[in-house]
Amino acid sequence: VDLSLFERWYEQAGTPTLGATSSYDAQKQEYTLSFAQACAPSPGQPEKRPFPIPVEIGLLDEDGADLPLQLKDQDDAGSTSLNLLVQKEKEDFTLAGVTQKPVPSFLRGFSAPVKLTYDYSDAELQHLMAYDSDLFNRWDASHKLCLKTILKLVDDYQNNKALHLDESFVAAFGRLLAQSDLDKAFLAEVLNIPSESFIGDHMEVVDVEAIHQVREFMIGVLAKTHAQAFKDKYSALKAGEKGLLDPAAMGERALKNICLAYLMQIETSEVIDLCYLQFHECLTMTDEIAALGLLCSCDVDERQKAIDSFYDKWGHDVVVMNKWFSVQAASKLANTVQRVEMLCEHSAFDASNPNKVRSLVGVFARNQRRFHDISGRGYTFLADQLLDIDSRNPQLAGRMATLFNKWKRFDAQRQDLMREQLERIAAKPGLTSNVAEVVGRALAN
User: Fold this and answer.
1) Closest of 60, 158, 71 to residue 101, by C-alpha
2) d(CA 379, CA 391)
3) pLDDT at position 181 over 70
4) Which of the residues 309, 368, 413, 431 has an alpha carbon 20 to 30 A from that of 166?
5) How far apart are CA 264 and CA 274, in angstroms?
């Protein structure tokens, strides 16, 4: 095999985009995959030669089983995964003996570091999510389906339409919960809905309120529809908890806490009690922090009790207290910015300690819903903190200033509020070059 073409991966900058389309000829029982690759120009390289891209594929039948694969005019058949080497800008591959229209699974085993695009239907994504033998592709199908559904619901929300979650989408999650043979860590990842900041990265203009409301709506519908399944799985995993630190035990805890997070979306007294019980009876810090974080986003009496209890128990441990600050900074509650301001005055907070600053101020600035509150109070808070930190630790202040970098991605009102704070920072006499450079670049872009 001539491997010299693979040197292009080292000679050429950038990540290739690989577009894929398919067609099925039922009469000939042939399935054709067409690929087109491209790589954007970069400094000194206005044009890129085609990369050799190994694309490991599988084809799923209507029952979710992998079909045997055979390229047309070739004798070798039987394998359910096939590596197609795309070496040209455009290239087609035809597979023979395909008895039904399949659902393709691309880049199995992460066969190439490319951005692949394929126009999957919702039904096809649900099929991959339920059956693909490549676990990463199953997760990826779930992630894409969630993002696609959320973006559609955001559009409905912006146009004052009633929010409705398709029954087939809800059922797909139910099927996953019902599969007892799935790896627990994998299932926890599949059930984890994309974050608000990730959703915002896929919008031309980030709509903070719409993203938050839609995401909460989606999780709420899934939680209420599958409440019993979440309860049963949580109870089974909690009963088997032994506090072990091996990968299997960690995966079980991850899934248990995802189930609890869904149940907490319902916020019944029964679920609050369940969460508070885990907080007090847990065998690991993972479970303790997970329960505390969930309680921090609920406006209930148990919230403050848990916060105080954790501090009484762990206040002597500097590292653990970083977690205490972080879960409060990540809260969904409307008064989070006020809470964070108060925590900056807490005896356990040390503004000269970079880890403390990142745990409280940094986590809050990544709390998309509360940092970007339309009052602008979050922006003022971060600017105040940057100006204060700059006098002691310019490097940390410079890194924290990058949290304003995406200010032009938001609506006009939030842009004005952020620009005002950036200009205030830039105008401060004696500002260090670390912060001045970051802020100046943000304002100029």
Assistant:
1) 60
2) 19
3) yes
4) 368
5) 9
Residue 344 token pair: 């900056």
Q: Which of 107, 128, 221, 212 is nearest to 176 (CA)?
A: 128
Residues in contact with 428: Cβ distance below 8 Å, sequence separation at least 6, in sequence order: 387
Q: Rounded to 5 degrees, what are φ and ψ at 25?
A: -105, 100
For residue 147, the SS3 value is helix
The span from the CA of 334 to the CA of 435, in Å, is 30
Residues 296-344 pLDDT 10s: 999 999 999 999 999 999 999 999 999 999 999 999 999 999 999 999 9
pLDDT digits (tens, 9 = 90+) for 101-134: 999 999 999 999 999 999 999 999 999 999 999 9
With tokens 């055979």, the residue in question is 70
Regarding beta strands 17-25 and 30-38, do their DSSP bridges make them parallel or antiparallel, or are they unpaired? Answer: antiparallel
Query: Residue 71's beta-bridge partner residues?
Result: 95
CB contact at 8 A, 274 and 263: yes
Sheet holding 103-105, edge to edge: 82-86, 53-60, 103-105
**Which residues have C-beta within 8 Å of that of residue 370, sequence separation ≥ 6?**
331, 332, 333, 334, 336, 337, 364, 378
Helix, coil or strand: residue 159: coil
Tokens 């985009």: give the residue. Answer: 17
Q: What are phi and psi of 375, to 5 degrees?
A: -70, -25
Tokens representing residue 322 in the block: 């970083």
Does residue 160 sit in helix, strand or coil?
coil
* CA-closest candidate to residue 232, choices 210, 262, 205: 262
The answer to whether 186 and 132 have CB atoms below 8 angstroms apart is: no
pLDDT digits (tens, 9 = 90+) for 337-391: 999 999 999 999 999 999 999 999 999 999 999 999 999 999 999 999 999 999 9
> pLDDT value at position 1?
79
Pairing of strands 30-38, 90-96: antiparallel
Least Cα distance to 172 among 154, 152, 190, 147 occurs for 190
Rounded CA-CA distance 331/294 in Å is: 8
Task: Report which residue type is found at 411.
Answer: D
Phi, psi of 203, rounded to the nearest 5 degrees:
-120, 145
* Position 197, amino acid: S
Cβ atoms of residues 407 and 419 within 8 Å: yes
User: Do 178 and 225 contact (CB within 8 A), yes or no?
Assistant: no
Do 118 and 106 form a contact (C-beta atoms < 8 A)? yes
